[in-house]
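Reviewers of the previous submission asked for a worked example of the structure-prediction workflow described in the proposal, so we include one complete record here. The input consisted solely of the amino acid sequence. No template or homolog information was supplied to the procedure at any stage.
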Amino acid sequence: MTPEELRQSAEAERQKSHACKHILGVCCAAGCQSMGSDKIKDALDKQVKLKGLESEVNVKSVGCLGLCAAGPLVSLESDGKKAMYQAVKEADVAEVVEKLGKAPVKRLELSLDIPFFARQQKIILENSGVIDPERIEEYFAAGGYEALIKALTDLEPAEVIDAVSRSGLRGRGGAGFPTGLKWATVAKAAGSRKYVVCNADEGDPGAFMNRSVLESDPHRVIEGMIIAGYAVGASQGYVYVRAEYPLAIKRLKTAIKQAEGKGLLGDKILGTTFSFRLEIRLGAGAFVCGEETALLVSIEGSRGMPRPRPPFPAEAGLWGMPTLINNVETFSTVPPILRNGWEWYSAIGTEKSKGTKVFALAGQIKNTGLIEVPMGTKLRDIIFDIGGGVPDGKKFKAVQTGGPSGGCIPESKLDMSVDYESLREAGSIMGSGGMIVMNEDSSMVDVAKFFTEFCMSESCGKCVPCRTGTAQMYGLLEKIHAGEAVKADLELLKELCDLVRTTSLCGLGQTAPNPVMSTLHYFEKEYTSLLKDGPGKPAAAR
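From that input alone, the workflow returned the following structure tokens.
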């Protein structure tokens, strides 16, 4: 496929879309599918055919529409006007079709003016809920692969890296390392072969950002990886995705096959001398394989266990060759940066944290779902405005960001801006983007115990601090929870947290103490109230 053929295909798809008076988009991401949205899609198809409206109505599967709590969701575009239907059932289908071109079905209508939709700024999710993720032509029509054309025909590899660097994009997988610097390091590294790896091993409890992007817009990830391969001099890429994401894997496989069929993967892409191939590698659910060196070992076919660093993967990664590793969100951000210019992207967010971030809102919050907001958005705005606050009249107590490796942030910190630096100062991390909200009934000792048990069970066992230290931490938390601990046990817990944090081999052990340390810092009274010799205990009980 040549650039001109791609653009012709995109224009043909746009004209086809405009020819339909009404477009019904049924959310067929995993959340809505679990509530029967695929059956609603089939029912809509049958009803449209029954009414003889095939030429006027386009019923299509789309990716995640965001507000998972209100699913199954159906979007409607009719005569230039947009609407959204929530909690749609098969019994509603006939009325939905009957009302096309008339007033919306009021009992199903979900206002697009509510803060959940109005307060977002979508870059990574711009196509999610808009295009059919299993049709490459719809991705073309939305501007897909235009960034790849620009990179391969107008820019030198160094110019691509310069644009990514100037944009201020930082890795969306955890620590927020500057993406352009990582790309430049791989480009300069010596090696007979180089690799590009996408880390889609999203193992944090309550996190579903990467899964949703792969289910909703897989070509965006592929395009970002091809551009990265061109920029750093790699001809082979791997997507490492957890096997527990069957729908994401299915759509990714379909997208790769389609891209190969169009000549966007393989030899001499878009008529240039650049070649790039892409394969999928399935993870077996080991949380430690989210750590980049353990992930690489797993791709190589061995048990996923971290390697000491240095050397870093940028210098010696897969099979000892220079390897670029970014996650799903990072690669997804590259195409719009090249399409719109690095100046556009760098104007979004804060001084040190540019662009937007996708978050998965979960836990005790009304609007469970997927959101994308500019870096620097206040935590209070995310939880109480976009998220709708805590349900059932309960009070907010804390929010955990960053998964098992993150910290618990209390009500007193709600007015902080959400960016890499602010979260670190608060004792947490950005992580991949999970946000778990807890209400007044939550025990922070229980929370710390839960995540410590998770890290303990997911430790690969390679290094003593993590293998033994997390087990000892968990034992002390059990003792405290049971009311059998004394002050000395609490002090020992603090010492253990510091030891595990500073001496573990990889990020799993280094960040495993975060839930304990943050809850001790902000909610220490909950710990001391359980001690045998804690304050307020009568002498007879001591």
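The CA atoms of residues 396 and 439 lie 5 Å apart. We consider this example representative of the routine output the project will generate in years two and three.
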